[in-house]
């Protein structure tokens, strides 16, 4: 633990590392820091993957595990893409759209909130969030 604290102290106490209004200097050269993290997308990906794991643990369902990890991985990849470029929503939109359709159909057939209703609702919320992102006017870059 102590080596990590010392390493952190050495890195952050270095006078060549300073922050300035959206950019930072490393050894005298400026680097832009415009990346915003898609925390909602990562949370959604975690919810999907943990739902698949929970289905496997509770019922021994290997298809739940495989689908949860597949769709959770795709949702995580989509969140990563949105974090790098906020206009690149297509992987996340396709993943959440597919999950809202699949889980919505399961919820309609079973009328059970867990897990189909929860996943359908969360997926619909993600589709709505991503659709609003698409409908917003792009920001002008200078």
Automatic annotation (TrEMBL):
UniProt family annotation: Belongs to the TMEM14 family.
Organism field: Poecilia reticulata
GO BP term, example: heme biosynthetic process
Chain ranges passing through the membrane: 39-57, 64-82, 116-135
Record has 4Fe-4S as a keyword: no
Protein's name in the database: Transmembrane protein 14C
Listed GO CC annotations: mitochondrial membrane
Pfam families: Tmemb_14
Subcellular location: Membrane
Purpose: Required for normal heme biosynthesis.
Keyword Transcription regulation annotated: no
Domain of life per record: Eukaryota
């Amino acid at each position: 633990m102590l080596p990590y604290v010392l390493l952190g102290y050495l890195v952050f106490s270095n006078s060549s590392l300073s922050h300035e209004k959206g950019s930072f200097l490393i050894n005298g050269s400026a680097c832009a820091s415009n990346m915003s993290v898609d925390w909602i997308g990562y949370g959604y990906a975690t919810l999907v993957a943990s739902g698949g794991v929970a289905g496997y643990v509770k019922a021994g369902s290997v298809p739940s595990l495989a689908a949860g990890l597949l769709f959770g991985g795709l949702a995580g990849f989509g969140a990563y893409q949105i974090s790098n470029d906020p206009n690149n929503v297509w992987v996340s939109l396709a993943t959440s759209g597919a999950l809202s359709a699949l889980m919505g159909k399961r919820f309609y057939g079973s009328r059970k909130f867990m897990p189909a209703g929860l996943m359908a609702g969360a997926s619909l919320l993600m589709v709505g969030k991503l659709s609003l992102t698409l409908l917003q006017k792009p920001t002008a870059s200078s």
